[in-house]
């Protein structure tokens, strides 16, 4: 088998890149370790920036998102019984879109299938060969058979635990990491959301987030111990804890119901540099992770896809490698700013076990600044809706 771009990972990054390339007549093949249903069963991001919306439109898959997604013009920040709103549209002229990653991924799968795109599922033992030479190839096992594909480029879109980043020799990359001493316990429930905009809450018992997917599908999170287990939390215990962490008048309005999904996500900040090694390009979670507080994970994956897609089209259409040569630098410049924002917002909103009285006072002062300063709100809004690319 031969293709122009071999894409490892059929998550949102890999699918979006493949569909964008297809629109420009560039051929790709996706190798995905899991089944389609498994990928679609992962409940993840919910907030999309304008940059991702534009890419979805350009890929020809923005229709359902534009019809069924919800524009949010602002967000609420609660601390203790206090609550204030940051208006994104007033400060930046731009809203965000609430439309689940599951739906983004479903729309992309359907478009790839309709266009006859090749996605190999349940691949095992993916190995990248000769990425530092002119003729790379990728091998894998599938249904007991050994397979091989030759290509011009490899796009490593295989997430944090994928094989692509580890294929770059250790002495050719540098990793930066911060692991937070807690996780997020999240539930999805078929109940109306407590509010029409998201509520991020800092309470003495820890962080909580009230989010949603649609009018009858709510997504809630509470900060939990990094060692906690989903089995330790009944639905009733979850709802009771959520209500203790949000202002009383909001808690009164929470409609509870059985959870249809419950999971714990660890919190991590991580970046690997550079994001390119020869003909291998890392994209999305394969290269960087943010804590979910800033809702930036999927959105940073999208900006990587944008830079890589424009580098590949420049290469194939103009025979010019400049965009590919600048890929890592351009992508990382935006990534580090999203890392900073996600780290800052996480520091502001969570309870840290080792927090001193002084640290707590700093957190309160920072929160007061954000509540009262137009400039601070504008900076938050600019970052939340997404820096330009
Ligand atoms: P993914 O989604 O992890 O997809 C990678 C794919 O690669 C496959 N794979 C392999 N395939 C072949 N061979 C191998 N060796 C492979 N190893 C792995 C995997 O099966 C998978 O299908 O990475 P991608 O495409 O870069 O997308 C990144 C996003 O999924 C991620 O950044 C976001 O979900 C993060 N995130 C959020 N991002 C936002 O922008 N807004 C949000 O509101 C938001 N909320 C969240 C989040 C992530 C969360 N969790 C669970 C970590 C909320 C949560 C709770
Ligand atoms: C979500 O709805 O899953 C969500 C929303 C905002 C975040 C993180 C997750 O910051």
From TrEMBL:
<dbReference type="InterPro" id="IPR012733">
    <property type="entry name" value="HB_mOase"/>
</dbReference>
<dbReference type="InterPro" id="IPR036188">
    <property type="entry name" value="FAD/NAD-bd_sf"/>
</dbReference>
<dbReference type="Pfam" id="PF01494">
    <property type="entry name" value="FAD_binding_3"/>
</dbReference>
<dbReference type="InterPro" id="IPR002938">
    <property type="entry name" value="FAD-bd"/>
</dbReference>
<feature type="domain" description="FAD-binding">
    <location>
        <begin position="2"/>
        <end position="342"/>
    </location>
</feature>
<dbReference type="InterPro" id="IPR050641">
    <property type="entry name" value="RIFMO-like"/>
</dbReference>
<keyword id="KW-0503">Monooxygenase</keyword>
<keyword id="KW-0285">Flavoprotein</keyword>
<dbReference type="GO" id="GO:0043639">
    <property type="term" value="P:benzoate catabolic process"/>
</dbReference>
<keyword id="KW-0560">Oxidoreductase</keyword>
<dbReference type="GO" id="GO:0071949">
    <property type="term" value="F:FAD binding"/>
</dbReference>
<keyword id="KW-0274">FAD</keyword>
<protein>
    <submittedName>
        <fullName>4-hydroxybenzoate 3-monooxygenase</fullName>
        <ecNumber>1.14.13.2</ecNumber>
    </submittedName>
</protein>
<dbReference type="GO" id="GO:0018659">
    <property type="term" value="F:4-hydroxybenzoate 3-monooxygenase activity"/>
</dbReference>
